[in-house]
Structure formats: C-alpha cells, structure tokens
Design a protein that fits this description.
Layout lengths: L18 E3 L6 E4 L10 E12 L6 E7 L2 E7 L1 H7 L6 E6 L9 E3 L2
Length: 109
C-alpha cells in the first residue's frame, strides 16, 4: 500500500513511524477536484466504492478506497446529489488535522 504523509495536531513521532488512525466519518469532506488554497492539509486522492442512502437518517454514507484501506464519509443527500457522486468516481477526501487526536491514534507494527 502507498504511504501518505499526515498533518496531525499535537502528535510527535519520528518520520517514517507507522500509525493506525481512526477517522470519524463526520470529520471528512469530499471534493471532485483537488482543493486549492485550503486550510485543510490532509487531502487524499480516493475512489468511491459504495454509496448508501439511509432511510432512517439524513445522511448518505460513502465508502472510499485509499489503497487497500477504506475511509467512510457521512454527507447530506443534498451534497451527494449536488456533486453527482457515483461508485467508481475519483474524489478527494479532506480531513482536518485537528479532528485526529491522540485518542484516535495507536502505534502499530
């Protein structure tokens, strides 16, 4: 799997350290094109693998492939329709560094 560099608030490890990261689906936003001039520093190229419209909530769950891993995203039906999202589509996931805290990280390997 390809490795990515992450900007995570208040977490200091030597360069090259491996981490397991928990990302809350509500802390991720999607863009169809690579954002420019954004305060969000964690911008990852991904591919939509699944879109699930929930009948019991006002969220749409989007599953993204990031190499061999997956990231889940919760967005509104309006955002899903406005972006015309489909499975197989390439999108950028944006994750704020301050949304990943020490409690969401665990050294692994």
């Amino acid at each position: 799997m390809r490795s990515y560099s992450w900007l995570i608030a208040c977490w200091y490890l030597p360069v090259g350290s491996k981490l397991r990261v928990r990302i809350h689906a509500n802390h991720v936003s999607l863009c169809k094109t690579r954002p420019q001039n954004s305060s969000i520093r964690n911008i990852l190229p991904t591919t939509i693998t699944e879109i699930m419209h929930s009948e019991s909530s006002d969220n749409v769950q989007v599953k993204l492939a990031l190499g061999d891993d997956h990231i889940w995203v919760n967005i509104t039906p309006w955002a899903c329709d406005d972006l015309a999202l489909t499975a197989g589509q390439a999108v950028y996931a944006q994750i704020k560094g301050v949304s990943m805290t020490e409690s969401e990280l665990a050294q692994s390997f």
